[in-house]
Amino acid sequence: MKGETRHKSGDRPSIIFLLGPTACGKTELILNLCKHFPSEVVSVDSAKVYRHLNIGSAKPSAATLNKIPHRLINIADPTEIYSVARFVEDAIEAIEAIVAHGKIPILVGGSMMYFNSLLNGLSELPAADVFIREELELKLEKLGIASLHAELQHIDPFAARRIHPNSKQRIIRALEVYKSTGRPISSWWGNRKRNKLKDRYSLFQLGMIPTQRKVLHERIERRFLQMVACGFVEEVRGLYRRGDLTNDLPAVRCVGYRQLWSFVSGETSFAEAVRRGIIATRQLAKRQLTWMRGWEDLELVPVDDGKKLLPKEKIVDACLKTLSRTPISSITD
User: pLDDT, tens digit, for every residue of 192-204?
Assistant: First the structure.
């Protein structure tokens, strides 16, 4: 394809994956990394896809987006259910467009399932069973989500570890697959639709990793409180007052939004909502790091020195040093 950015050997276009847990400084890093070679950013974030989820998703400012455009940001309304399948389709389209303009796509974010599905393909799951789903939804209303998650833990411990205990949609889907096929959903995850990403592109995967969990936890708390100071509660209150959103929608279930929604709806106190928001964000970071520990071909880049976060210049240098060991170095000089 004319205009593609290729290796020194001229065989395939290059793509950079930049993974990392929440609050590790991915946004600052990407703004500096993009200065070193022709590139465009593709967001890999299940919250940033939604319009009006700005403060709580740590979405780049309008000024930043004007300076360095990010694809797959603000592309869905909070009333929509933005699926993994839709992300894969949108991401491939964005990658192809960026490569066609002679630039390198840098995919950055913390939605590990998005990254995994894009990299390895989508699972070939059986079709939905409406009757079983209705039965499970009635059970949910009667017994609650904890009961359904406990049932999933019994029949499919692996899936129960991967699926958040409050993720109603995914828990119901997992139980539905088991009840309709007799096979746990995790056994279907190995059946992947072949993805051309690995065939067509050369991938360079960087993982931002904290050496001390405590440093990341402290940053998560500071950032959450800063978000509140910058109007996070008012943002959630505005979503609540729309009247067309419920706490069952993926946008509202995003970490931080779900907890503050419980405050603006009168279910919990402000202090309790903030406390739960910080805890939920730390739990999210833990799940993200669990994904990263088992990630193949991931070059780890430390973001702290054991006591505090490293200056962004040092992290950028570490990324560039890692990339310099690959054929992509021909365009980073």
Answer: 666 668 778 999 9
